[in-house]
Amino acid sequence: MAKAIRARDALMAAVIGDPQPPMPAFSAVDLGPFWRTFDDRAPVHLRGGLRMATVMLGIVLPRLLGHGRGLVGLSADDRDAVVQKAATLPLFSDLLEVAKLVGCFAYFSGPAVQDAARGRV
After folding, report:
1. How far apart are CA 55 and CA 59, in angstroms?
2. Residue ranges of the domains in the chain?
3. What global pTM score does this model have?
């Protein structure tokens, strides 16, 4: 289970990338509350789609592209290269869209991200 969570988090970080200030870094956002809600309330097809995206994009595709490991073990530049390649490949591009959707929901669920994006309300 922990390996799957690390793979999911590496995929989410790869699709969000490195936000520019004043937006907080993806790694600085506490995603625990989001993932608990997602696991409890997201439709089964979305949860399944994210699991498939995590396996295919986070574990399988990096190896198909010649990396000796999944996204977890890659540098930020190599993660980005895998994501960029995924966008050009049938099936992988669809899974990437699922990962982007969930990644944005996760990232923007953080109060610090909302404050930075909207300004203090």
Report:
1. 5
2. 2-118
3. 0.90
